[in-house]
Amino acid sequence: MATITKINSFCETIEAGVRGAEFTGISKMGRIIRGSLQFYDDGTNFEILTSNLNSSKNKEMIWQYLLDQQAKPSTAEDTLPSVP
Fold it and tell me: Which pLDDT value is given to residue 81?
Protein backbone atom coordinates (compact mmCIF):
# COMPACT_ATOMS: atom_id res chain seq x y z
CA MET A 1 0.00 0.00 0.00
CA ALA A 2 1.46 3.33 -1.10
CA THR A 3 1.13 6.32 1.21
CA ILE A 4 0.60 9.76 -0.34
CA THR A 5 2.85 12.48 1.09
CA LYS A 6 2.08 15.23 -1.43
CA ILE A 7 -0.53 15.86 -4.12
CA ASN A 8 0.87 17.61 -7.20
CA SER A 9 -2.23 17.77 -9.40
CA PHE A 10 -5.93 17.18 -8.94
CA CYS A 11 -8.43 17.29 -11.79
CA GLU A 12 -12.15 16.82 -11.24
CA THR A 13 -13.99 14.81 -13.89
CA ILE A 14 -17.57 14.01 -14.82
CA GLU A 15 -18.09 10.87 -16.84
CA ALA A 16 -21.52 9.39 -17.55
CA GLY A 17 -22.94 11.73 -14.91
CA VAL A 18 -20.57 10.47 -12.20
CA ARG A 19 -18.36 13.07 -10.49
CA GLY A 20 -14.82 11.97 -9.76
CA ALA A 21 -11.22 13.07 -9.93
CA GLU A 22 -7.79 11.99 -11.07
CA PHE A 23 -4.71 12.99 -9.13
CA THR A 24 -0.95 12.63 -9.12
CA GLY A 25 1.40 12.91 -6.23
CA ILE A 26 4.47 11.65 -4.44
CA SER A 27 4.54 8.53 -2.27
CA LYS A 28 6.34 8.07 1.02
CA MET A 29 9.02 6.15 -0.94
CA GLY A 30 9.51 9.15 -3.28
CA ARG A 31 7.74 7.59 -6.25
CA ILE A 32 5.28 9.39 -8.50
CA ILE A 33 1.81 7.97 -8.01
CA ARG A 34 -1.42 8.36 -9.91
CA GLY A 35 -4.89 7.63 -8.65
CA SER A 36 -8.57 8.23 -9.11
CA LEU A 37 -11.55 8.67 -6.88
CA GLN A 38 -15.31 8.91 -7.10
CA PHE A 39 -17.42 11.35 -5.13
CA TYR A 40 -20.64 10.09 -3.60
CA ASP A 41 -23.91 11.60 -4.87
CA ASP A 42 -24.33 13.88 -1.86
CA GLY A 43 -20.87 15.39 -2.42
CA THR A 44 -19.81 14.97 1.21
CA ASN A 45 -17.56 11.96 0.78
CA PHE A 46 -15.55 9.99 -1.77
CA GLU A 47 -14.03 6.59 -2.41
CA ILE A 48 -10.48 6.10 -3.66
CA LEU A 49 -10.79 3.75 -6.64
CA THR A 50 -7.07 2.97 -6.96
CA SER A 51 -6.74 -0.14 -4.79
CA ASN A 52 -3.13 0.35 -3.64
CA LEU A 53 -3.99 3.90 -2.46
CA ASN A 54 -7.30 3.13 -0.73
CA SER A 55 -6.42 3.80 2.91
CA SER A 56 -7.72 6.11 5.61
CA LYS A 57 -4.35 7.91 5.73
CA ASN A 58 -4.49 8.69 2.00
CA LYS A 59 -8.14 9.74 2.27
CA GLU A 60 -7.11 12.15 5.03
CA MET A 61 -4.36 13.60 2.80
CA ILE A 62 -6.83 14.15 -0.07
CA TRP A 63 -9.39 15.78 2.26
CA GLN A 64 -6.70 18.16 3.51
CA TYR A 65 -5.68 18.99 -0.07
CA LEU A 66 -9.32 19.76 -0.98
CA LEU A 67 -9.77 21.96 2.11
CA ASP A 68 -6.55 23.83 1.33
CA GLN A 69 -7.73 24.44 -2.25
CA GLN A 70 -11.04 25.89 -1.04
CA ALA A 71 -9.16 28.42 1.07
CA LYS A 72 -7.24 29.76 -1.96
CA PRO A 73 -8.71 32.27 -4.41
CA SER A 74 -9.61 30.61 -7.69
CA THR A 75 -8.42 33.46 -9.94
CA ALA A 76 -6.23 36.52 -9.75
CA GLU A 77 -9.38 38.66 -9.85
CA ASP A 78 -10.46 37.19 -6.51
CA THR A 79 -7.39 38.72 -4.87
CA LEU A 80 -8.07 42.25 -6.15
CA PRO A 81 -9.82 44.65 -3.78
CA SER A 82 -13.37 45.53 -4.76
CA VAL A 83 -13.93 49.02 -6.10
CA PRO A 84 -17.01 50.82 -4.75
Answer: 52
